[in-house]
Write a structure and sequence with these properties.
By secondary structure, the protein is an all-alpha fold. The chain has a domain of about 230 residues. Helix content is about 75%, strand content about 0%. The protein contains 26 helices and two strands. The chain has a two-stranded antiparallel ribbon. The C terminus is likely disordered.
């Protein structure tokens, strides 16, 4: 199994989608059971990957390698090559978990064209897993584009009143980014041939030649990749498609969109933009602009969340703010920032995925998401209100819950790079508490003033079960995050060292970062080391 574990995890959802095609569409119950079983099996199959990876976490390079370069389409140098490191491992585990929970949450929410819905959802799951596993740029792009059509259909067919507008806007934005990224991929492909006389899309091979590109050309290539990934995150000002997509999408699609798909952009920055263009990302102006856009996204997303009347739109704008922290950590270009960024991506998937589930459950009962329509929900739905409080506190970064660990590590990395960046970003933590507590107060506290809320049903066993793994992970990461830091230590330190080696010690941002050899990721000494370096 270990030799092909990635392929098994990758294609399990696709096998389920293919088998569903042979089930008559009238057998709704059978379709639901099959889809949920394959989603759950996909999660179970991914669990053995955890102990397998744990024992190899400090080994160099990618792990669980499958395929050889150019073994798929030899004429163009494309190969079916899979492999993972600690960064992609955590994102794969998040994808299989949220994919199963999303499909489970759809049991009563989807009542028309049920067969097509589950087929496309399982295809989407395969596309997302493929992005995190691919070690061939051609294969990566195939999976990247394969996600686009299923999500477009999930929003456009099973979405809300303005579903077509939201779906088309999502499609066009993402397609624009994909076209720019494709042009960048082709340039890297031909540049590698110029240097090595070999045509290949192998990502490890491109790592060797991409940093050789002259700065004047590299900055244009970096811009192409940056726009493609920034749209996917989405960073400010490329974020305008996200609120519409979230508001109109069905609950499960919002969960998987926020929990996994947005991480494709941050994953692209870490996997490609930083190692391919080290001389560009360490340039003070480029780094300053990237950090500036991240800070604007943090504050802007939080402020806009404060004035929302629709619960789902509030959670959507909160994603803009939270993912601003993730990009802030990435472009800090040091071990603390990058580690905190990846960990916060996992935290965001857990917390915001749960928030969309919470909003979706209330919408199923009342068919409205207007905050003014609610009040006093805690008296009629106590279990629901308790779970909501835990996940709200998780999202706002309360100590002993997962959000705190990610945010404090990111701010540590930002401070080590430039204390002003950390100072400007820190108010985002306070604003997150403001809009989330303000939302909770209006919806859950007080008296039940609306008669329509007096007899709302509390969580069913199925709905309660969906939140159990999310709560367990939120507490685990908040109380004992050491295993996650250990998983990320090797790939993050290697990435930071690679940036330093290719960009030179004169790059100010990298010089101010704590060296991997001096201080380990997650070591408390990193805080003092970063402060001393910034003070110098």
């Amino acid at each position: 199994m270990q030799s092909h574990v990635l392929s098994i995890i990758l294609f399990t959802p696709l096998i389920g989608a293919i088998l569903l095609l042979f089930v008559p569409k009238e057998k709704i119950s059978t379709i639901r059971w099959m889809a949920n079983i394959f989603a759950f099996v996909g999660f179970l199959i991914s669990l053995p990957l955890a102990p397998m990876f744990w024992w190899q976490r400090f080994d160099p390079g990618f792990k669980f390698l499958e395929g050889t370069p150019n073994n798929w389409i030899p004429s163009i140098g494309a190969g079916y090559n899979l492999g993972i490191d600690g960064i992609s491992f955590l994102l794969i585990m998040l994808t299989t978990l949220l994919g199963w929970i999303s499909i489970l949450s759809s049991w009563t929410a989807i009542e028309h064209r049920v067969k097509e819905y589950y087929v496309w959802f399982l295809v989407l799951q395969t596309g997302m897993l493929g992005v995190f596993m691919a070690l061939d740029f051609f294969l990566f792009f195939v999976f990247w584009e394969a996600m686009l059509v299923p999500m477009y259909l999930l929003i456009g067919i099973w979405g809300g009143p303005r579903k077509l507008y939201a779906a088309i806007k999502f499609f066009l934005y993402t397609l624009l980014g994909s076209v720019l990224m494709l042009l960048g991929i082709l340039f890297l492909y031909f540049h590698h041939h110029t240097v090595s006389n070999v045509f290949t899309f192998s990502i490890p091979e491109l790592y060797k030649t991409a940093p050789m590109i002259p700065f004047d050309t590299a900055i244009w290539l970096f811009g192409a990749f940056f726009i493609g990934f920034a749209i996917k995150v989405p960073m400010f000002p490329f974020h305008t498609w996200l609120p519409d997509a979230h508001v109109e999408a069905p609950t499960a699609a919002s969960v998987i969109l926020a929990g996994v798909m947005l991480k494709m952009g941050t994953y692209g920055f870490i996997r490609f933009s930083l190692p391919f263009f080290p001389s560009v990302v360490t340039h003070p102006k480029v780094q300053g602009w990237a950090m500036g856009l991240s800070i604007v996204g943090i504050i802007y997303g939080a402020l806009v969340s404060l004035v929302q009347k629709d619960m789902k739109k509030l959670v959507a704008y909160s994603s803009v703010s939270h993912l601003g922290f993730c990009t802030l950590g990435i472009f800090a270009l040091n071990s603390s920032g990058l580690t905190g960024s990846v960990l916060q991506q996992i935290n965001h998937g857990i917390s915001t995925g749960a928030l969309f589930l919470i909003v979706g459950i209330l919408y199923e009962r009342r068919h409205t998401r207007e905050i003014a329509e609610f009040g006093g929900i805690s008296t009629v739905m106590p279990v629901y209100s308790t779970i909501a409080m835990i996940m709200f506190l998780s999202s706002m970064g309360l100590p002993l819950l997962n959000g705190f660990v990610g945010e404090i590590t990111i701010l540590q990395g930002a401070f080590a790079a430039n204390w002003r960046w950390a100072a400007w970003a820190a108010p985002g933590v306070v604003l997150a508490a403001a809009y989330l507590l303000w939302l909770y107060q209006r919806v859950f506290f007080g008296t039940v003033s609306n008669p329509a809320n007096e007899k709302l049903q509390d969580l069913t066993p199925r709905e309660s079960f969906m939140f159990v793994p999310l709560i367990v992970l939120a507490l685990w990461i908040g109380i004992y995050p050491k295993p996650f830091f250990q998983i990320l230590e090797k790939p993050v330190n290697d990435l930071v060292q690679g940036i330093r080696d290719h960009s030179g010690e004169s790059a100010a941002a990298v010089n101010r970062a704590p060296r991997p050899s001096q201080v380990s990721v997650g070591d408390p000494r990193a805080i003092s080391a970063g402060v001393m370096k910034a003070g110098d």
